[in-house]
Amino acid sequence: MAGLALCTATEISFNMLGFSAALSTNIMDCLQNVFSKKLLSGDKYKFSPPELQFYTSAAAVIMLIPAWIFLMDLPVIGKSERSFSLSQDVVLLLLFDGVLFHLQSVTAYALMGRISPVTFSVASTVKHALSIWLSIIVFSNPITAVSAVGTVLVFVGVLLYNKAKQMQRDTLVQHALNQSAEAEQKHMIHDGDVTSAK
């Protein structure tokens, strides 16, 4: 998170409200990852990735309808009470965006069913950092030392997380091997005692 904050701190359009919104979005994404993982691998309720995408999309539509009505420039109920029209290009772009978002969401839920929510959140952080750098390249924003340090911090954090995850996995494997060896040794000692008793 600190790396992403440094990446965006030097943006020309940076303001605290936008940063707070981005931070709250990241927090909500992490919470959504945890609850989605519970729903994808739960005992009582277990959803498939397309089912989870359907229910979250339906809930999002219901929550956004009031904002859509009051903030969009719709006829009679919109801000200016003017007639509202969509061009064919806008409709096609909205449909294309919807299809891509659906595919991205179903893929994300399928991936989340296979990895931990923390790993997924770490991967999302890298995705956000790469998006920031893509916007820097596309919009020709100047690259500052602070944004470069932020990006390095993101990647160092990811590398440290992967290293810690690997060490944890190795420790668990070693612990399981030790327990297996101890159980086998006890079994051999017990068999030896039974044989000597005969």
Automatic annotation (TrEMBL):
<keyword id="KW-1133">Transmembrane helix</keyword>
<dbReference type="InterPro" id="IPR037185">
    <property type="entry name" value="EmrE-like"/>
</dbReference>
<keyword id="KW-0812">Transmembrane</keyword>
<feature type="domain" description="Sugar phosphate transporter">
    <location>
        <begin position="1"/>
        <end position="162"/>
    </location>
</feature>
<dbReference type="InterPro" id="IPR004853">
    <property type="entry name" value="Sugar_P_trans_dom"/>
</dbReference>
<comment type="similarity">
    <text>Belongs to the TPT transporter family. SLC35E subfamily.</text>
</comment>
<feature type="transmembrane region" description="Helical">
    <location>
        <begin position="132"/>
        <end position="161"/>
    </location>
</feature>
<feature type="transmembrane region" description="Helical">
    <location>
        <begin position="90"/>
        <end position="112"/>
    </location>
</feature>
<keyword id="KW-0472">Membrane</keyword>
<dbReference type="Pfam" id="PF03151">
    <property type="entry name" value="TPT"/>
</dbReference>
<feature type="transmembrane region" description="Helical">
    <location>
        <begin position="54"/>
        <end position="78"/>
    </location>
</feature>
<protein>
    <recommendedName>
        <fullName>Sugar phosphate transporter domain-containing protein</fullName>
    </recommendedName>
</protein>
<dbReference type="GO" id="GO:0016020">
    <property type="term" value="C:membrane"/>
</dbReference>
<comment type="function">
    <text>Putative transporter.</text>
</comment>
<dbReference type="InterPro" id="IPR050186">
    <property type="entry name" value="TPT_transporter"/>
</dbReference>
